[in-house]
């Protein structure tokens, strides 16, 4: 009798253990929450990104054609100047002395011309009456012509000396703003081999341009006239607008990467853009306005066995292999229309229905829907898993992972 009691107690204990195991196992049953979005009407825009440098549209480097010591500077950084305004002067002493010396030489040459002209006239008169030989006459004529030629040569030298003397005064060639001043009073500048730059003048700072470097992989989609938006670090919340005006054919190579210089014009009426700023550029290569669109990951969703346990599937679906949905983003269409694609829609009775749609333009985030959906359809983009016990979320290993969806913090595919 005692053994029977022990046997019944063991069986009861075993049954209680099985019951507790079943209860906790059932309490941990996996539940899922679908992420859905409704199609919207909007624009699909394709862009490429690049960086560039802000610079004035027209900048003039002002130099000196003569050597000398800077005598006086009349402008400084950021000075507003007018065309013809005196910017600086060089010490004119040496060049003035050279000019005076040549002027003295010219006066001597003019005196010599008068003497040789008188001698020529006398020899010509004697030659006519046969008093001198032809050789004497020709010698007087030659000396007279040489004296005239010398006058012309020295006059040219004097003109060059006076021109060089005038170069000791540096004038502004344009209206603009002084961007840089590279010399100081008392500094010696030498123009023997190249013209030294004294000042840099920006013509109009209300019109700027961005000098962008665009990678060879993206340059094929870039054309003149395309719209551009960009930001600068000084105003990260402001979007500046511009337009491509030139794509230079000469390539630049840096670290084995080939880039092409692209010039973008932009307005700067508020003078917020400063020369030398770095611009983070987005070139709008394609813009399709006012079309129906859905997130591009919607066409990658396929219901797996976990979804089938929690929701009714109205449309037969093929088995899904893990390697088919490895979390990779679907390739963008690059504006090439597709024949059709499939999406899954969550109905009001919480059942799933597969719909075939015709698609058009896409980028990395959005896909155009030509037909097959309405604005009221709840299109499934992914799901997250939940457990009753812990309430923690897990992600399906069969689907691309994403953040976002139809509510903050939901899982699913990439966005």
From TrEMBL:
Mind telling me which GO cellular component terms the entry cites? efflux pump complex
Which superkingdom? Bacteria
Question: Where in or outside the cell?
Answer: Cell envelope
MF terms in GO: efflux transmembrane transporter activity
Limits of the YknX-like beta-barrel domain: 208-283
Residue stretches making up the Multidrug resistance protein MdtA-like barrel-sandwich hybrid domain: 59-196
Q: Where is the Multidrug resistance protein MdtA-like alpha-helical hairpin domain?
A: 100-168
Keyword 4Fe-4S carried by entry: no
Entries under InterPro entries matching the protein: Beta-barrel_YknX (IPR058636), MdtA-like_BSH (IPR058625), MdtA-like_C (IPR058627), MdtA-like_HH (IPR058624), RND_pump_MFP (IPR006143)
- List UniProt keywords, sorted A-Z: Membrane, Transmembrane, Transmembrane helix, Transport
UniProt region (Disordered), positions on chain = 389-415
Stretches of Gly residues bias are at 406-415
Q: Which residue spans traverse the membrane?
A: 6-24
User: One Pfam family from the UniProt entry?
Assistant: Beta-barrel_YknX
Which positions fall inside the Multidrug resistance protein MdtA-like C-terminal permuted SH3 domain?
335-382
Q: Family per UniProt?
A: Belongs to the membrane fusion protein (MFP) (TC 8.A.1) family.
Q: Could you identify this protein by its name?
A: Macrolide export protein MacA
* Species this chain originates from: Chryseobacterium salivictor
Q: What is the lineage of its organism?
A: Bacteria, Pseudomonadati, Bacteroidota, Flavobacteriia, Flavobacteriales
Gene responsible for this protein = macA_2
């Amino acid at each position: 009798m005692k053994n029977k009691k022990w046997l019944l107690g063991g069986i009861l204990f075993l049954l209680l253990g099985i019951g507790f195991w079943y209860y906790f196992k059932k309490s941990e049953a996996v539940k899922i929450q679908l992420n859905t979005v409704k199609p919207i009407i909007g624009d699909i825009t394709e862009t490429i990104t690049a960086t560039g440098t802000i610079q004035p549209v027209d900048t003039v480097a002002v130099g000196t054609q003569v050597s000398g010591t800077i005598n006086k500077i009349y402008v400084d950084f950021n000075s507003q100047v007018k065309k013809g305004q005196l910017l600086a002067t060089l010490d004119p002493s040496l060049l003035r002395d050279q000019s005076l010396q040549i002027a003295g030489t010219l006066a001597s040459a003019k005196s010599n011309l008068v003497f040789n002209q008188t001698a020529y006239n006398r020899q010509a008169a004697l030659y006519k009456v046969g008093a001198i030989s032809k050789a004497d006459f020709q010698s007087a004529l030659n000396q007279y012509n040489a004296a005239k030629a010398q006058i012309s040569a020295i006059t040219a030298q004097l003109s060059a000396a006076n021109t060089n003397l005038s170069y000791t005064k540096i004038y502004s060639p344009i209206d603009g703003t002084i961007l840089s001043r590279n010399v100081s009073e008392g500094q010696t500048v030498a123009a023997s081999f190249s013209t030294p730059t004294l000042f840099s003048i920006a013509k109009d700072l209300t019109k700027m341009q961005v000098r962008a470097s665009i990678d060879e992989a993206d340059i094929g989609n870039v054309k003149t006239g395309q719209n551009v938006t960009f930001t600068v670090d000084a105003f990260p919340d402001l979007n500046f607008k511009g337009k491509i005006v030139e794509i230079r054919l000469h390539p630049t190579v840096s670290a084995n990467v080939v880039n092409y210089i692209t010039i973008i014009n932009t307005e700067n009426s508020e003078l917020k853009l400063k020369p030398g700023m770095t611009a983070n550029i987005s070139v709008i290569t394609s813009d399709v306005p006012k079309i129906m669109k859905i997130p591009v990951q919607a066409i990658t969703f396929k219901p797996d066995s976990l979804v089938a346990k929690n929701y009714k599937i109205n449309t037969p679906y093929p088995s899904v292999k893990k390697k088919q949905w490895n979390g990779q983003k679907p390739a963008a269409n690059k504006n090439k229309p597709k024949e059709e694609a499939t999406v899954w829609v969550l109905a009001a009775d919480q059942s799933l229905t597969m719909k075939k749609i015709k698609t058009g333009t896409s980028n990395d985030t959005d896909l155009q829907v030509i037909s097959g959906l309405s604005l009221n359809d709840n299109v499934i983009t992914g799901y997250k898993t939940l457990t009753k016990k812990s309430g923690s979320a897990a992600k399906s290993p069969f689907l691309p992972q994403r953040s976002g969806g139809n509510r903050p913090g939901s899982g699913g595919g990439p966005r």
